[in-house]
Amino acid sequence: MSTSTAKTYSIGELAKEFDITTRSIRFYEDQQLIHPTRKGQTRIYNQRDKVRLKLILRGKRLGFSLAETGRLFELYDADKSSATQLNTIMDLIAQKKTDLNQQLEDIQAVLIELTGLEANCKEALAEIEK
């Protein structure tokens, strides 16, 4: 869909471009993260919605919750280049890094346990097969 003033997108076009379902896009709308206009029953997305959708998906890949992403959008909308916004983003990044490092430590501990269990199973199997 195009207008003479600005590029617009249908829900199907965005779903195809980002390889997600239309249901996901409607969910993000329900969460107030994107705000398409309506023409009858048809949703019409603008460039801002497209950029936000891209940021939502990037945030998900990085482990940010939708609430955290929404908070960043609110800060950006309120003051596009403030120290508050940048400090909040840095705080969220620091917390995310802390969380990921803890998950990494947990995964490493589980791998050590599994390796030990595997060795015990191999030993027991070798005894059985003698």
TrEMBL record:
Boundaries of every HTH merR-type domain copy: 8-75
CDD domains: HTH_GnyR (cd04776)
Pfam family, one: MerR-DNA-bind
Name of the protein described by the UniProt record: MerR family transcriptional regulator
Name of the gene this protein is made from: liuR
Organism: Thalassotalea insulae
Coiled-coil ranges from the UniProt annotation: 100-127
InterPro entries xref list: DNA-bd_dom_put_sf, MerR-type_HTH_dom, MerR_fam, Tscrpt_reg_MerR_DNA-bd
Keywords: Coiled coil, DNA-binding, Transcription, Transcription regulation
